[in-house]
# Entry
Amino acid sequence: MAHPRAGTPATADDLIDVAAVEGAYYDIAPDPSNPDQRVVFGTSGHRGSSLDGAFNEAHVLAMTQAIVEHRERAEVEGPVFIGFDTHALSLPAWRTAVEVLVGNGVAVFTADGDHFTPTPAVSRAILRFNRENPGVQADGIVVTPSHNPPADGGFKYNPPSGGPADASITSSIAARANELLEGGLRDVQRIPFERARTSELVIDYPFLDEYVTALGEVVNMDAIRAADVHIGADPLGGASVAYWGEIKDFYGLDSMTVVNPATDPAFGFMTLDTDGKIRMDCSSPNAMASLIAARESYDIATGNDADADRHGIVTSDAGLMNPNHYLAVAIDYLFTHREGWSAASAVGKTLVSSSLIDRVAAGIGRPLVEVPVGFKYFVDGLLDGTIAFGGEESAGASFLTFESRPWSTDKDGIIMNLLASEILAVTGQTPSERYVDLTERFGETAYARIDAPADREQKARLAKLSASQVSASELAGEPITAVLTEAPGNGAAIGGLKVTTENAWFAARPSGTEDVYKIYAESFKGADHLAQVQSQAQELVDSVLGSATD
# Structure
């Protein structure tokens, strides 16, 4: 149920005390015996609030030292490219990381002027360096909690592949970081920030210029300019703020407006998300309420989260697009408008993304690679070109350049937003109009995610389910066609369960941060059938796990 103020402007009572959040970063010492205060890498790094003892200086000291030691084991001898977003904790955490990296003798490439840097710009910089310097591998760190509320901090490690690190790396880093916390940080090497920042090991890198001037390699910027698409680009106060202004100027996009170019660590200009919190989720109608209300002012309006790895597309005719709908449209368009792409390259999707994507991929004659939740599963395919497009249901995606080279191996919300304008410029249709065309060809779906209660033990049980534990043969009136605990695209464990029928499916996965499990479900037979799928899905999973009160 939505909060009564969801979608309304934040008030003074909704805002964090920025000084208190920053003070707690330094003042609170986490207790490593408390599971909630240990280092835990989820699908997008370690996240938490300094006020809760979950993201503090000690965590960043330990994580950075653990990354340094991982680099030594992996023989990564190049620089660390580092970026940070506009959250209140990101700048302090960036400073801490630089202290440790330089204290260990590691070269650091950071933005000139210490400017904010989006995740995709860091990914591109890693790939470019490694391409131009064979034999000397670079990697990266991005200090961001993505779209999380303003009191949160986040820390991500990208290895030399340029994309999110896989679990074998992050689990090793987290284990060592927790050892360092338990040891009172005695093995952490650091030097004061002022000395570190002026060290010859810290090099200013033109992330913004390198990223913006290369955009024509991946998006048809000439077509956008020629069509004079009226674009409203809202960075939502995130790290892409300066990037959108530079894109407008460099490519002569006179009809582009950078909506709300201000930054504010309290994000006081936001409308409240569905749960009544401030959250920079560009896929949420409530967080994007202001841009949706202004949609008639633009042909295409777009939003990004704080580190710009997510996209949000608003069209004048339909408002905010469902992320699954836009992924399907983007795939259909790209694979029919990129002549330089290999005829064998595949569509990558997470297994909780819409099955409309499956039908679109079949319609354009492309193989489909279905993987567990996590963009890390697309990294290798984007690197070698076997996957030309990888996308997640949570509004994250990236794709190859016109010449079939990797652009970024992490999610890139900027190119996905620009692609919406390219689609309009080239086809004369908005992405939402093209979505209607797809539904006429492949059917219209009803899709939703709900949460159900589960304690820590039950969540662990769900993550380790086997297909043999599911005895049901029918789901919402249709025979079950598959029960999956491993992704068909790569055989990796789902960390949960997916059940499919001819016209519907559901997937259940434990939450990494709350005492719930998530049920994703979809039906090509309408909203009533979807409700049946959801209800039976919860019954089925609960019967396997036992009730939350057992």
In short: The longest strand covers residues 446-453. The chain has a mean pLDDT of 96. The chain has 17 helices and 22 strands.
